[in-house]
Amino acid sequence: MPETPSPTPTRRRRVDLSSPVVWAAAALLALLLFNAVVNPGFFGLRIQDGHLFGSPVDVLKNSAPTLLIAVGMTLVIATRGIDLSVGAVLAISGSVAFTIIEGSSDPTSTGTAVVAILTALAVGLLLGAWNGFLVSVIGIQPIIATLVLMTAGRGLAMLVTDGQIITAESPAFNWLGGGFVLGLPAQVVLTLAVLLLVAALTRRTALGTLIEAVGTNPEAARLAGVRSRSITWTVYVFVAFTAAVAGLMTTANVSAADANRAGLFIELDAILAVVIGGTSLAGGRYSLTGTVIGALILQTLTTTVLTMGVPDEYIRLFKAVVIIAVFLLQAPRIRAALSRRRGGPRAVTSPAVPVPPVDGADARPLTPAVPAPARAADGPSSTSDSSVDSDQGALR
Amino acid sequence: MFKKTVVTAIAVAVAFGATACGGSDGDGGGSASGGGDGTITMGFSQVGAESGWRTANTASIQESAEAAGIELQFSDAQGEQENQISAIRSFIQQRVDVIAFSPVVETGWDSVLLEAQRAGIPVILTDRAVDSEDESLYETFLGSDFVEEGKKAGEWAVENWGSQPTFVAELEGTTGAAPAIDRQEGFAEAIEGTDNIEVVASQSGDFTRAGGREVMEALLNSNPEINAVYAHNDDMALGAIEAIEAAGKTPGTDIQIISVDAVRDGMQALADGKINFIVECNPLLGEQLMELAEAVVAGDEVERRVVTEETTFTQEQAIEALPSREY
What is A20-395's CATH number? Predict the structure, then answer.
């Protein structure tokens, strides 16, 4: 998979230990190992009716909606934005699709399903355009702009469904939730396709760099000739599109559109996945691989506690502990402290374990927000908010 | 600084979001004025419109009031206690003859109920109880007995599953919710002493289909021996059915299912043979409520606790009952 090019190609190292992605991957690996020990049946895959079944498949399948939205969210966050309305968009998309199917004269036909899917996606794009308009043209802060739709959106979805849970049997539509491609759940394949497309579009072209430039400093990017407004607008439309697709998936998954509960708090899961993956909420450099790992960690955690039978009261606590552990591992200051205690030669001789400037007492799990061109030649993790500012000054 | 803003804003957003999704079906109160000339005026404050069950509950109360000639002032609290308290206060100011409400939460009602008592307006609780030391604050509580529902489910299980080894997966409702706690307790009580029935796994599916499906998927992997499901509501049972079918097993045969609620989709699945037994949790308590209201206003003694009339459904009974089902 095309991934964030190393910002400092001059320095060659086998594993960049200061990269949060590495630590997230390590955490995922540890979690899987833990499962191998505690839940011996966890990796048991079996073929049933020509399809793969087992916990790993469940993890992939159930993480699909969150992952899909998180991919869109990564780009939004990279432009220094955020979209809180994805859960509402998800609910609206599912509600619109099922209302159309239920109200049609021939609910089981493929034609109806296609109309329903296209309409739902169109509505999603429209909602995304609205968010993008508020943020990029009107200039409202993203968190406020999308908060509007987050709160109003569920109301819209309830208006569409009349406050009821809508059920419908449409084989073509339900394929999105229960179908298979080459033995893998359709949701997984679809998500993978979107992921690869985004990776190719942003990493094989200059688009990714432009997005990072907008996130690092919109004004500087604009002066440098980047069309920041259209880029910002586009990422909001795209994240709403991913949310709409996720809405179709979750609705098809249970053959029911629940305007009240579908995708509740998924925006927070998506944001968490992005952050665990090492993308800074301050915008700029982003990592799609990190986001994938982040989403997988979240779902593996859920499946793990369900498989282990952790009492419900402890589930959230268990998850919180794991996630905090990941963040601590990623924090440069904690790592610096750890390697110093170990007294390893690395800590003494190499500047590769940087000590961040003392500008805030909090541990920083986030990656630096500086894109490749503006990066200092040294210190992969040494950047803080203040140094971003100085970089911006330099660009002006 | 930016980060701080983000964190604060997310916190605000979460708080905002948590309250905002309670429901937006603002029905508004009626504009009718207080009673007089013999007709009874009832002020009713509903929780919200969060589920099909609740919608049926509201419809039943509105229809029964009309049938009984009781003037109903209806107010939707949209899931918030604050709205409910202000609705009750306005009922008191309008000097209605009787106040009924389904409390959003259990606690925090003493002062507003005391105001009603001082104004001499009797209060009836429906569907959910309040947690108050002073029981004189309300006349009666009309609602389902969730423990009894769990017991009915357990008794059917003992009768039908008791003869062979049965490994039950229990899909619990929202952690801490009264129906979830009581339905679990009743079921456990009923199956106690039956060695063949064992609850091998119990997890919360949050009363939703998506939750039911995800939990069931995980349990089928971790406990392949499961051959029975007890779901605390129909929605979770319906989610579990999807998971069971996806795993290549037949719900209703390979894995038998007991559920609670008897909403339309659940009854349909029961009639289709995918669920084996449903304990009804009846939202149609309007008629009983109006009878109680009339008795209370007339000054008659009423029972402190009135249990809703509820039944159970087997597959055959579901096929029969389905055409005339109201919700």
Answer: 1.10.3470
**What gap in Å lies between CA A180 and CA A52, rounded to an integer?**
9
Token duo for residue B304: 């402190």
Alpha-carbon distances, residue A249 vs A47, A93, A117, B244 (angstroms): 23, 10, 10, 18
Q: Does A159 touch chain B (CB under 8 A)?
A: yes
Closest CB from B3, B21, B172 relative to A312: B172
Residue located via tokens 């919180």: A320
Mutation target to probe the B interface, by most B beta carbons within 10 A, among A95, A260, A318 is A260
Residue whose pair of structure tokens reads 């309830």 in the numeric block: A158
CB-count exposure of residue B264 (10 Å: 0-12, 13-18, 19+) = middle
Q: What are the boundaries of each domain within chain B?
A: 27-144+283-309, 146-281
Give the residues across from A167 on adjacent strands.
Answer: A256
- Residue A90 contacts residue A266 (beta carbons within 8 Å): yes
ipTM of the complex: 0.73
Tell me the residues of chain B between 207 and 226 that have a Cβ less than 8 Å away from chain A: 208-210, 213-215, 217-219, 221-222, 224
Interface of B with A in 260-299 (CB under 8 A): 265
Provide the b/e sequence for A200-239 (b: ≥16 CB within 10 Å): eebbeeebbbbbbbbbbbbebbeeeebebbebbbbbbbbb
pLDDT digits (tens, 9 = 90+) for A156-186: 998 998 777 888 888 999 899 888 998 899 9
> B27-144+283-309 and B146-281: same fold?
yes
Yes or no, beta carbons of A255 and B201 under 8 Å apart: no
Q: B25 contacts in A (CB within 8 Å)?
A: 158, 163
From the candidate CATH numbers 3.40.50.2300, 3.40.50.1820, 2.60.40.3250, 1.10.3720.10, the one assigned to the domain spanning B146-281: 3.40.50.2300
Kindly state the DSSP code that residue B316 receives in the 8-state scheme.
Answer: H
Chain B, window 140-199: residues with a beta carbon less than 8 angstroms from a chain A beta carbon: 172, 175
Per residue in B101-151, pLDDT tens?
988 887 889 999 999 999 999 999 998 888 888 888 999 999 899 999 999
Nearest to A115 by CA among A128, A94, A101, A105: A101
Question: Domain B27-144+283-309 adopts which CATH fold?
Answer: Rossmann fold (3.40.50)
Write out chain A residues lying below 8 Å of B214, CB-based. 62, 302, 306
Distance CA A40, CA A36 (A): 5
CA nearest to A98, candidates A81, A118, A113:
A113
